[in-house]
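We emphasize that the prediction below concerns an isolated chain of 445 residues; any contacts that depend on oligomerization or on bound cofactors are therefore not represented. The input was used exactly as deposited, without trimming of termini.
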Amino acid sequence: MQDFITMSNRELHRAEIIQKLIDKRLLELEAAEQLGLSVHQVRRLKKAYKTDGAKALISKKRNKPGNRKYPDAVKELALAYIRENYSDFKPTFACEKLSKNHGLTVSHETLRKWMIEAEIWIPRSKRLTRAYQPRNRRECFGELIQIDGSPHDWFEGRAPKCTLLVYIDDATGKLMECQFVQSESTFTYFDSTRRYLETHGKPVAFYSDQHSVFRINKKGALGGDGVTQFGRALNDLNIDIICANTPQAKGRVERVNRTLQDRLIKEMRLKNISNIEQGNEFLLQFITVFNDKFSKNPVNLKNMHRDMLEHENLNEIFSWQEERSLSKNLTLQYNKILYMIEDTLDNRQLAKNKVTVFDYYDGTIKIKHNNKELPYRIFDKIQKIDQGEIVSNKRLGAVLNYIKQKQDEKDEVRSASAPSKQHLGEMNTAVIKQKSKAQNRIFQE
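Result of the prediction step, given as a token string:
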């Protein structure tokens, strides 16, 4: 009966080289170079191979405990402490407590392995995954519209990365509205939703994720009514907004995003579309073709969209609205700009009263009290200084220029609570700060 031995690839390679050495097909120096060993080691292996055969090349450490292995007593003691005091602790945290409270120091990875073997800890790869059971589509067209923004390299490097806003009907799977925008913001959703309503009417509800446009995510937020600007606008239109608890819950729009990232990108590549404007023009015909191919008939043929009411002014509703208190001097601040209401007898009665600032999509600002527009003048705190108007003295001008740049670096940012104006081409706060820092470095050099 022959004995079988198990060898690793490395050991098999060694046996091959040593056999060639014995057959005098290799020199000792050549064998040493191929094995990465010294000539002395090669001679030792050659001698052992001649005496005991291939098993002489097998590591002597095989099937033996490592030199750094913890004694079994330490393992049993650690597991006893964990079962008694830390049965619901994660391995890293349990390792810290063993060291701090019991003076028992082991590697947290070793402890993790012990806990897995003892079935105290279940690794993530072996846990039962949560089951996301499918739900039936809504029965009627316009009953539920899923909305989402999909940031992606839609133009494959031919244009900067942007976001596609997608509106899809839950009952039919129809693409109702799509628009390329620079990023997800309140005003971009205002614009897309307005286009949707003007084309299709008012649905029963929108179904979205928990993006800050749709939901106030800050825990323990103080002040305000707990409703976002988008939520306030939909409330004015008598449309509900529902936020999904998980991405899987709004799987229809998530899946269509994945399809669009395949088909839409390739269609635009074939037509050499390379910017947002061209992309939005192409979307009109793409949506028609897409719906003809993929949409389904609803269970109930009733259309749940409602017509717009006469008093529903979309220009007013889809504006950023914030309340402010007029000072006794008939002034208020918004986005670091001081607004001075025209001093008239009627307006003086509004001192200390609440007014509403309307910030429109095109950047227009209106101030109203009880739906009556108030004329105003502005004083912008963030103004550029014309050095020619400061002083003609060269040395003093350089000093003032340095001071101005330092002030720009510190103050040239609008309020974080004001709406983003990237859709109007304005830079965001981070970009302004970076430019200010770069200008300051250039001046110092």
